Amino acid sequence: MTGYPRIVLNDGSIIAMDNKGNSCDEVVETGTSFNSDGSVAKNPDGSIKTWTRTRAVCGTIWFDVNGNKNPNQFGRDAYVVDVYRNKIGDVTWSAWGTESLHNILMGKKNPFVYKDYDANGEFEW
Fold first, then answer.
1. Which of 32, 37, 104, 110 is deepest in the core (most CB within 10 A)?
2. Structural domain that includes position 51
3. Residue 97, Cβ density class (10 Å: 0-12 exposed, 13-18 middle, ≥19 buried)
4. From what superkingdom does this record's organism come (predicted)?
């Protein structure tokens, strides 16, 4: 993640961190809802569907297990976890590789859950 403090380990793995700068205070977040195919979700009246949630996240940790080597794709070799006051937990957006990471930690066979990126897309650390 560009712009965040990061550590590059001897094996090339990258760990990036963000402390959110909020001292673990509750934060209200809003965003656009998406359908399973990646398209923007719409309300019955045609307006864009949004979501709102309140969370008390103290920070976020991004990591890429093989650094700059391909595929550099969340859910395959890059993952994210949120840091809470008393625990580390899943992020709520599956595009960050949440389901794959959970499956790996549970020891499941064929743990990877991801959608291939567009060939012209970019992934920048």
1. 104
2. 6-105
3. buried
4. Bacteria
